[in-house]
Amino acid sequence: AFNLNAFKKMGELGLLGITASPEYGGTGLGATAATIVMEEFGKVCPGSTLSYLAHSMLCVNNINANGSPEQKLKYLPKLISGEHIGCMGMSEPGFGSDAVGMQCKATKDGENYLINGNKMWITNAQYADVIYLYTRTGPNKKDLTTFIVEKATSGFSVSKEIHKMGMRSSPTGELSFENASVPAENRVGNEGDSVTHMMKNLEIERLTIAGISLGIAQACVDQSFKYALEREQFGKPIGEFQMIQKMLAEMAAETEMMRHFLYNICKEWDAGNVSNTAASMVKLQLPKMATKIALDAIQIHGGYGYSREFPLERPVSYTHLT
């Protein structure tokens, strides 16, 4: 289940606005710092870390990067303190990877916009007070416009809770808009700016979410080394057998490769030198490596690797979703 108390504590610790401007209560740090947080959280609870990402990177970071001074002042302080929870609405029932094909539509209506459509697979949907929402405002593929939508908006609802194979501590739902009336002042930038917003934030979003995979891998390595020293077979710890030593050595080496790859690219991003391609490579490769490391950890644990008696079961079941 979603740990709301832990989430509020993150706000007290200054973690919910780690990349946001100190002017609004944020910490003012970059991709490296945000990814360190993701890695450390990912070691313990990848599901909760995914909710943290949706709030801090998909919502707070986007508003901080793209919102007007008035929008930042209105929304960021409560999001950063943990009083409010945020999410981002991009994917739709028929449009996931093809995000610019989205059909959720915003139509100008006097001083407001009327929004109609659905958003699917939205992390934090059931708890969100603020939604950073992408919509279509014209016939061309890039006629996309961003809005900040509040939970109390008339015509807005969370229509369905989605039950998942993993990441169960991260709530996921479907957002529905039926003539939801949003003031024009809640539009982020100009009409048609959404693609620019997406591209501007995609790199740091991809880098930070890869931190979950690194945390999972490190947790598996730590637990496997511990188990190999404690578990005895044939009169000695299994860590003294060459096959187990080989597996442990490979897991540790692969985790260090993940760490160096990820943080080198984070460092480049903080210096303003990263391309979308490099960030995409990080997100592509780290989950694959984490999955391999997690499967090796299961083998080292034998039957206990398949049991909930040991903590290994939690990170292993989440690797494919990061």
How does this structure look, described?
The chain is α+β, with helices and mostly antiparallel strands and 322 residues long. The protein is 48% helix and 18% strand. Strands 1-4-5-8 form a 4-stranded mixed beta sheet, covered by helices on one side. A 4-stranded antiparallel beta sheet has the order 2-3-7-6, covered by helices on one side. The chain has a two-stranded antiparallel ribbon with strand order 9-10. A hairpin with a 7-residue loop joins β4 and β5. α2 crosses α5, α3 packs antiparallel against α4 and α5 runs parallel beside α7. The longest helix has 37 residues.
Q: What count of helical segments does DSSP give?
A: 8
The proportion of residues in beta strands is: 15-25%
Range of helix content: 40-55%
Secondary structure tally: strands: 10
**Sheet with most strands: strand arrangement:** 1-4-5-8
End-to-end Cα distance, whole Å, is 18 Å
Order of helices and strands: HHHHEEEEEEEEHEEHHH
Summarize the model shown.
By secondary structure, this protein is of the alpha+beta class. It has helices at residues 4-12, 31-44, 46-66, 69-81, 194-230, 242-270, 276-301, 313-316, and strands at residues 86-89, 105-109, 112-123, 130-136, 144-150, 156-161, 172-183, 187-188, 232-233, 236-237. The chain has a 4-stranded mixed β-sheet with strand order 1-4-5-8, with helices on one face.
SSE inventory with pairings:
Elements: H1 4-12, H2 31-44, H3 46-66, H4 69-81, E1 86-89, E2 105-109, E3 112-123, E4 130-136, E5 144-150, E6 156-161, E7 172-183, E8 187-188, H5 194-230, E9 232-233, E10 236-237, H6 242-270, H7 276-301, H8 313-316
Parallel strand pairs: 1-4
Antiparallel strand pairs: 2-3, 3-7, 4-5, 5-8, 6-7, 9-10
